[in-house]
Design goal:
heterodimer; A: mainly alpha; 10 helices; B: mainly alpha
Amino acid sequence: MIINLIFDVFSLILLGSAAMVVTSRNPVHAVLFLILAFINAAGLFLLAGAEFLAMILVIVYVGAVAVLFLFVVMMLDVNFSALREGFQRYAPIGALVALILFGELALFVTGSAISPGAASARLFPTPQGISNTQALGSLIYTNYLVLFQLSGVILLVAMIGAIVLTHRDRKRAKQQNLDTQHARTPAQTLTMVSAKLGAGAPMPEPKKETL
Amino acid sequence: MSAFFHTDIGIIILTLLESLAIIVPLLLGVAYLTWFERKVMGAIQLRKGPNVVGPFGLWQPFADAIKMLFKETIFPAGADKILFTIAPMITFGLAVIAWAVIPVNDHWAVANINVGILYLFAISSLGVYGIIIAGWASNSKYAFLGALRSAAQMVSYEVSMGFVIVTVLMCVGSLNLNDIVLAQRHVWFAIPLLPLFVIFFISGLAETNRAPFDLAEGETEIVAGFFVEYSAMTFALFFLGEYANMILISAMTTTLFLGGWLSPIPFAPFTLIPGVFWFLLKILVCLFVFVWVRATLPRFRYDQIMSLGWKVFLPISLIWLVLTAGFLEIFGMLPHA
């Protein structure tokens, strides 16, 4: 009874916030609703018994990806009313994509829900007796090791690519070099000058910094 | 009676009671942590600290609470009122709900779940939202600057914290916090994993935005950072949230590295003392270090914080992760849960 009630609450909030993501006028509010949707999706994962996926969803998507997303939306001064102008032109295409996705999802979900045989035909059935963290770990690191490593390499390439594309070494920026600072000795920077009484001393020639 | 606690309503009532048993001491602890901090910092700086309200100034936290309650909450012009009010609630609420999984004694946790440590990590990674929402909703440049600083800082230090946690998990073979403590019966993880223990604690300082990493507040540069526009109870919630987070990080350090509720001296008269006592004592030691660090060290510069996180802590924790994995594999010590 309680489980059903919790499921209803989570899914209602999930659907509501998902609707708000696309309808809210303020982009920051939209991202915050997206985060709320993520958290409720994690709650649904928990109810389905996939506690590892639930936690990873919160850690990766809410804790890292959405923070950066929020960051960008807050910092960028995008004119969102201008972006909305083409709404009616693009709406049919968006609806088509959504329809195809929905159809595929419906096929997939009803396949295992209506015919009990579908569950046994899975490539890797849900293991009994061990926690799903262990089950996922042993699958990823044995059967799918190569794929797992490959996806890591792809991410690495993407990361390096992003850095190469956006990094510009501006020489104007002042940077602190700890090694050169620590390597400086008094002999390099200090000069002793004897000043005559009443006349002072001439300014010593500045030493050449060997940076 | 015990059959009642297995019905639906019984379970709800029991969970509520358990939560109260955690939250009430936690709130008292937060109140007296402020007193403790002011006393310790006073002693370090050769002052007396609070000493007027009550004996040894012990009623000071309540006096502060009453003062906060009776002040006026001011909304800045152009602020996003809803988010402005929600932000402190998020900060404080997250600091409290994380306690659901922390084992205070053997199997004494509100929820003894399989992925306890991941839950803690997830909750602490959410902590950034309270700050970033507060900074944005305040409609103030100082607050926004503070929020941006703290967001970047917390995301950076979470990475090395994650690797430290993974190393501990590898030594335990379980994500359950109870198992993690029990795995330290023979030796606390602080000893074989000493560098990681240090990294974890320092990252904890950075996660809670405490000195010397309190750039999100940075009174001398950006007034008070993300909560510059907050007053009265909304400010108090941020303030209490920071202290609750300190206690939480101390509890995490205790659970992961200092043997949780286990007695530090493993023979007769000491093992008879209930584990809750040892657990609280270890938390108190960690909290003392928090205060000690704040009273001793000057604030970092922002680029120094970033280079410490990404160029020092991340490589060290990564290398230790690989080394530990190799060590456990070679000597056949990998746990098979």
